[in-house]
Amino acid sequence: MIVTRFAPSPTGLLHLGHAFAAITAARAGERFLLRIEDIDAGRCRAEFETAIYEDLDWLGLDWKKPVLRQTSRFDAYRAALDGLDSLGLLYPCFCTRKEIAEEIAHAIEAPHGPEGPHYPGTCRKLPDDVRKARIAAGEQYALRLDVRAAAERVGRLTFIEHSKSVDADPLLFGDVVLARKDIPASYHLAVVVDDAFQAVTLGTRGEDLFAATHIQRLLQ
Ligand code: GLU
Fold it and tell me: How many angstroms is it from 145 CA to the middle of ligand 1?
């Protein structure tokens, strides 16, 4: 059975691109789901979530109930992080945005991905005792995926895009954040965990997020 989902974040009103993505998912799916991607509490607003339901209703779409809201899923994200951590694929990152920008500005050649320059890997190189001391001192940290180690572990990956096999390039984004300093999850992590949980078989999303498939395939 083809299972699809429309997974908007209630951070603003839906636009025409969202409408197209929702219609595409609804038409393609024998089972069509709606997921509210609301982990970023600072940017999400209840009135935008209400507007999503109203707009999808207006479009004549019908989705399976209940709607999954990502704010109810933090235990599952934690479990996924624990699994990756037990494989040695995560590391704490203490860097601020400013420190990362400075490091990149000084780098001779900083690789770039779809979300901008790659994280330079500063905290990946920290010795274990330094990590422990900084955590014990109460420093805030994000969790990053060691993408190179993860990619080596799983080997070649492909995905199907419009009936054609595409080679995944999991290094495209560099060491992505899987748990933010302020939120114990991230977009890539939550999407992958929930697509698996909801048994989604066909991902549909805006072209602007197409590249995300490469890193999400690795996480799968
Ligand atoms: N929540 C994401 C957004 O609203 C889309 C999720 C996805 O389809 O991967 O842009």
Answer: 20
